[in-house]
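Notes, p. 3: input format for complexes.
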Amino acid sequence: MQEGIIVKGIGGFYYVELQNGELIECKARGKFRKDNITPLVGDRVYIEKINNSQGLIKEIKERKSQLIRPPVANVDQVVVVFALKDPDISFTLLDRLLVHVEEKDLDCLICLNKSDLDEDGKFEKVYSIYTEAGYKVIKTNALKKEGLDELKAFLKGKITAFAGPSGVGKSSLFNSLQDKVKMETGVISEKIGRGKHTTRHAQLIRIDDETYLVDTPGFSTLDLSFIEPNDLQYYFKEFRNFIGQCKFSSCLHVKEKDCAIIENVEEGNICRIRYNNYLDFLNEILENRRNTR
Ligand SMILES: Nc1nc2c(ncn2[C@@H]2O[C@H](COP(=O)(O)OP(=O)(O)OP(=O)(O)O)[C@@H](O)[C@H]2O)c(=O)[nH]1
Ligand SMILES: [Mg+2]
Ligand SMILES: [Zn+2]
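Output follows (293 residues plus guanosine-5'-triphosphate):
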């Protein structure tokens, strides 16, 4: 058996890169289907070759992590990509994505792309909200390859997934960071002002021995219903400093008396946009529970 990593999966075929760089088209053993295990991009696997270019996945190594959206295994961290314009930033989607990242306890960097289109100081605004919440935030221009040094430094030695809505420039960034594969990039639809879901499948590439990048399809919704109502507060990073300071230990920070989170929103220590998203998400989670019970 030979060891490799799944770099792409399409229609029941998995493309496995072996340690010597060879790319083998594989099917998964029937046993996986029976056990309800789907091999994922990023999975480290053992394969048996059938011939020079084809093989069978025999074994999947235990996963270090597993993201649901995008569906990739073993990533260490996420670059959350949004565009400063075309399409406009959705703060709801950005915070949803950050909740997913925090729930998986992954490291993350917020990358605001299309810096050339930022006319009204959007970057400064978003930068201040999210650095105050405890995130690293950078701006890039994928087409002119500007702002990539900080991004490259973040990627070094790690497996990183690029995640974000369609049309923000994930594949363009991917292309500007390496010469090995050229991902297809799309245009923004004039009619709907959004991307057209150019990337259809997650794809992993190895930049050097220890550095891997995963380009993924854009998305426009993210489900939060799997999150426990009481856990959500921890996935808003900046809340953590104040949790435990509320009058009631079971405080969900909605309208309880002497709530430290609400006080800090009022004092300007917690961003109100983020807090309002917290309330919306909490409502959505509670609502969902009422409906499925
Ligand atoms: N002005 C400007 N345009 C950019 C920049 N980066 C990407 N684009 C353009 O934005 C469009 C969408 O880029 P993609 O790289 O396909 O976006 P994506 O995030 O991969 O989209 P999906 O694959 O659909 O999820 C393309 O027309 C790119 O040329 C940038 O920094 N500035
Ligand atoms: Mg793409
Ligand atoms: Zn509270």
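The domain at 2-60 is CATH 2.40.50.140 (OB fold (Dihydrolipoamide Acetyltransferase, E2P)).
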